[in-house]
Amino acid sequence: MSKALDVTSVADAQAGKVSDIKVVGNGDMFQLLCKASSKEQGWMKSAKAMETPSGCVVQVTTQQGDNVAEALTFVPGVKIAEDINGGRKLVSL
């Protein structure tokens, strides 16, 4: 089974890209900042962020085939703002 590498939100997955998705709570609590992927080459990179009152928790993910690497960090003093191509970016509070 291959993964849908172009999913950008829970609504996107529920629109037919993931046939058996199950969601508990706010599945979009982490907002997609940016994403690049290649289905043909089997890779995906993304950055997501979750706002808190004092900054953002940021998660970066890299997938190459079946291998996945993730990192999580807190960035103080920032919030999420709209960016180009439907993405988002971090800006100062």
The percent range for helix content is under 10%
Provide the structure class. Answer: mainly beta
Query: Main sheet: which strands, in order across?
Result: 1-2-3-4
SSE topology string: HEEEEEE
Distance between the termini: 42 Å
Q: Main β-sheet, in a few words?
A: 4 strands, antiparallel
* Beta strand count: 6
What does this structure look like?
With 93 residues, the chain is mainly beta. It has a domain at 30-92. The chain has 1 helix and 6 strands, in the order H-E-E-E-E-E-E. The chain has one helix at residues 10-17, and strands at residues 31-38, 43-52, 55-64, 67-76, 78-82, 88-92. The strands form 2 sheets. A 4-stranded antiparallel beta sheet has the order 1-2-3-4, with no helix packed on it. Strand 3 (55-64) and strand 4 (67-76) form a beta hairpin. It is globular and about 40 Å long.
